[in-house]
Each structure stands twice: as C-alpha cells, then as structure tokens.
Write a structure and sequence with these properties.
Length: about 140
C-alpha cells in the first residue's frame, strides 16, 4: 500500500511541475479563458447603422476545423460574448479563427451565397485574475465567408 501511495504522489508531483505546452500563450502568459465579444448586424458591408440581429447563435470556429470552440446567443442589442475554456485554447489561433453565423434570419433580409458570414477576431487585452488569465478579443465586421 505504501508503494502505491508513493507512486501516486510521484505522478502528482511530476504532473504539477510540468507546464502546459499545448495551451495558448500570449506574451508569456498562459491563457485559461478566451472571451470574444461583438455585435451582430444585418449587413454584408460592415454598415454600423444596420439593424442588429438578436436571438441568433454565433460560433467561434477556426480554419481547417469543423469544431466550435464556443458559442453564444445575441442579446436584444445584438451583443454576444463567446467564452472558451483552457481545454479549447490549444486549438485557437487568432489569425485563422472567426466568429461565424448562419444568415438569413426572419428579421434580416441579407442573403449571403452559402448562408455564412464571419468576423475576424482581434486581441483587446489580457486580464490577469486569481483564477487564471483571460484573453479578451473583439470581432471585426461580419462579412461573407
């Protein structure tokens, strides 16, 4: 029994001393959570005066993958915040990830050819907290993919 406890303790110590090499790191900070926020509007040309779209699901997706890293539903003002945890940050690359949504919807008469519009993401800040680092991103305008 004592040998088993020593073995388990050894594994725990080794695991706690090893770094997460597969997570997202920004400026040397390991990121625990991603937050991507934006506003969804009924436009294909980034018109900021276009009406907002509420109640629509947006997805955070990266190129070459059909996996959604996170999703959110737009509020009555068209605002959304997609949150992804550390397990998903290894797949996240700001250069190849987009927030995507399927249009049209009943409140928007915009008809993209394949139904998808997407927005790029840009780093705004890294918030350091006691629970880990949060990378906050914002979206650019939604355009036809």
């Amino acid at each position: 029994m004592a040998k088993a406890n020593v073995f388990l303790l050894s594994i725990f110590v080794i695991a706690s001393l090893s770094s997460l090499s597969h997570g997202l790191s920004i400026n040397g900070l390991l990121i625990n959570t991603l937050q991507v926020s934006g506003v969804l509007r009924c436009t294909l040309n980034s018109n900021t005066n276009a009406p907002v779209i509420s109640g629509r699901t947006v997805f955070l997706r990266c190129a070459g993958s059909s996996t959604n890293l996170g999703q959110a539903i737009t509020d009555p003002a068209g605002v959304f915040v997609v949150v992804a945890k550390i397990a998903d940050t290894a797949l996240f690359d700001p250069a190849s990830c987009r927030v995507v949504v399927v249009l049209p919807v009943a409140t928007c008469s915009v008809f993209p050819p394949d139904g998808l519009v997407g927005a790029t993401v840009t780093l705004v800040s890294v918030l350091q907290t006691n629970l880990g680092n949060i990378a906050r991103f914002t979206t650019g305008p939604f355009l036809v993919l």
